[in-house]
Amino acid sequence: MLLFREGSRDAFEELFSRHHRAIVRFAWRMTGDPSAAEEAAQEIFLRIARAAPTYQPTAKFTTWMYTVARRATLNYLRDTKEDGEKVPILSEGEREDGVYPVQLPGPDDRNPEQVVWEAQLTERFRIALGELPEGHRAAFVLNRGDGLSYGEVAQVLGITVQAVKTRIFRAREMLLSLLSKDLSA
Amino acid sequence: MDCRDIRETISACVDGEASPAEAASVREHLASCDRCRVLERQMRALGAGVRQVRGRVPDRFREEVFSRLESEGALPKRRIVTPAAWRWAAVPLAAAAGLGLFLLTSREAVRGPAPPGPAASRVETSASYAPSPQGNAPALSTEDREMVALLDILEDPADLDASDDAEGMDLLAPGGSADTPNSSRGGRSGA
To answer: Per the CB < 8 Å rule, is B53 touching A145?
Structure first.
């Protein structure tokens, strides 16, 4: 980014080739729509390029990049009339015993993160993700989707680490509730 | 600890963000709570689920982005060497070549036949390499010829085979006096 700020086009091309897939994925997870994701991802790179003259490396580049990306998608979602809190914090699908009746593929005992999801379930997941309030969705996507730590998510969203922890937990509760409702319908 | 109170910590533990003390309390709770063990597995599965929502990079995405950036002037122009650019480069190159040729021919013209007298051999060192009708100077060794050739690459070393090549070397010879060039010349000519 510093080289690009100094006028190196090659530096921007390198930056683009390194990060464009992550940016498109982030935009896709945040908007849930292919054309919206493409538009938002283009806007993110435009903002990065425009910000180059004033860029200061005060944080990790990826943290700064996701800050730009989140603002761009947030603006995009506001423009398309997303109004935030769509899902009640109290999960309606939660049973008294606290276990959600959602048929999620069971994690492999040896490698619990390597879960193969059916295409249909992935589609339901995408829709459920879109139902989360933007702040909760952003926290969950940045942490679980893009691998940012709670501290980095806190920097991107401009909130405390404790708030990130709470948002991610809430996002999980809501997703489980939405998916259980969907599957039980 | 109550299940309701520990679920947020279970979530942090799944993300690897719980402190060692929190992680220990979660492990202790999970060991004795079937419901929270199921919930913990569901939380892990949700993390895998978000990574499955990937989308794909649209066709021509790169072209679209770079086109928009260029139209805004937000991207430095790529320097492309085109045939047209080469044509422009050819102008100064041709001028330089012409100047070089001029200097070379001018030098040859100046050198011409070596004027007689000491002044000429003093001032124009290269002129001293010019062949002389006096053919009594000792021939340079191969090593000397190479040395002289290095001193003036415009000279053809073959020319140094001429008999009075050593005149130029007189100027460099130890003990030779710049003020008395004729002495050595005269000496050779007298030999």
So the answer is: yes
